């Protein structure tokens, strides 16, 4: 568990997809776990080496060809998170190169878009099943 006294920025829990890009590696779609002004944590099927420099991209909901926001960061910790049938998933902690207070707001906006899309899909589904 992270010592709360060491944490300088509040965290906002999230579960939206983000794209992670490191060097010449292909981009990976990962699940965001939490975000704060100073960094974020995401879940990954791979362990990431400490110090790895990353580009973190927030794609438009359901259209992963365009990005809303991009930030730079580096891996500051990586630990086993949970086991699945496919293997171990890791929780990866990233510190932003430049702290960004807008990152939390942008994440909340994207979450709201996902929620609205889910509500519209539900309305379409229930309307079509009524016929």
From TrEMBL:
<feature type="domain" description="PilZ">
    <location>
        <begin position="5"/>
        <end position="108"/>
    </location>
</feature>
<dbReference type="GO" id="GO:0035438">
    <property type="term" value="F:cyclic-di-GMP binding"/>
</dbReference>
<dbReference type="Pfam" id="PF07238">
    <property type="entry name" value="PilZ"/>
</dbReference>
<protein>
    <recommendedName>
        <fullName>PilZ domain-containing protein</fullName>
    </recommendedName>
</protein>
<dbReference type="InterPro" id="IPR009875">
    <property type="entry name" value="PilZ_domain"/>
</dbReference>
